[in-house]
Amino acid sequence: MAKPTDIEIILSDLLQIIFWSSAAALIFTYIGYPALVYLVGAIFPKRIRKGNIEPRVTVLITAYNERRAIREKLRNTFEIDYPANKLEILVASDGSDDGTDEIVGEFSGEGVKLFHQEGRKGKTYTQNKAVEIASGEIVLFSDATTKYQPDVLREIIPNFADPSIGCVAGRLIYVDNSRSDVGRATKSYWNYESFLKRSESRACSIIGASGCLYAVRKSAYQVMYPEACSDFLICTVVYRQGLRSVYEPNAICSEETNRHSLKEMRMRIRVISQTFTDLWRNREMLNPLNGGFYSIQLIAHKVFRYAVPIFLMSILITAGALALSSTFFLVLFIVQLSFYAIALAGGILEKAGFRLGPFSIPLFFTVTNLASVIAFYKFLSGDNYASWEPIRETENSKAGAYTKSA
Fold this sequence. Notes:
The protein has helices spanning 6-43, 70-78, 100-105, 123-133, 152-156, 181-203, 230-240, 261-281, 288-291, 293-306, 308-322, 327-351, 360-381; strands at 57-63, 87-94, 112-117, 138-143, 147-148, 165-175, 214-217, 244-256. The chain is of the alpha/beta class.
């Protein structure tokens, strides 16, 4: 065998540097950062001084064409355990034309108020306008397809006794009554995200809430641009005012998961594209000199997470190149190709109506990261998602729901 030339040695070294750097970035994203934020929260926990308070609360339900879900949602809201004279229920209809407004009107005698936004302006724009007329000191944001536990406010409100708290996010539990493969993978992913929220809340401040369950001091709410992913951006808006956003795992709501990988990808493309816009417009918050540990959280949880496709591609290409002269990298290259082949097979099986079994995790992982690539392209192309589009089919609503922060 011929001795490698100096150029071949240098090229091999360079490829290995790229491979191991990308592998390290990937490991940090999924393991290192969760460990870091957990340790910071455990060693230097930021406490919450909870108290027994009962401020006036507005439950703001933003909806677009939710005729099939809004009646049940309002009935569910009536079950919330909170003094009726301190609770306002306000439905913000984003240009609905399917009879949603008429159904809400049926509940006007029970105190339900309707704000109708003429024309489809999008969730964030509609929320901005609705908050202006909300009478509550605290505004609880909800979607029409979300079911709340009766004690949801009893768990959330005590956090606002602490004057340093500006936003409180509840815990979304995904329900998968159909026992779909995508639903199972989504639940696993969301459990991981919930762990991160707990840790970030203790360490500093969460960087994003679930759009179907979070409460904000009205005095801390600021008008956001229409294409914003409001449930993500609100935490940065609050942090800029010197306030924290915290996670309250005992405040629980539930929703049905997506049942098909293409629907899940469409939802993620929309959310991630909006988040790219938010990160760019607020890029100064990515500088730790401005945002401290909150900036580190933004970089690790969002920037690194959305850069995972770059890490994966680098690992695949460099392993393939190094496989020509290394059995170790040949094995790694084959393992990666096998993983993506399994994901592709999972997509084919799902489309054909078969159960995926072990194919579901590779498919979900691949779909999630492919969504990041497409979302970045759409962000660069100037596409925005100010207007709502149906993304989720549930037992209660074929219309769908506004997107959740990813």
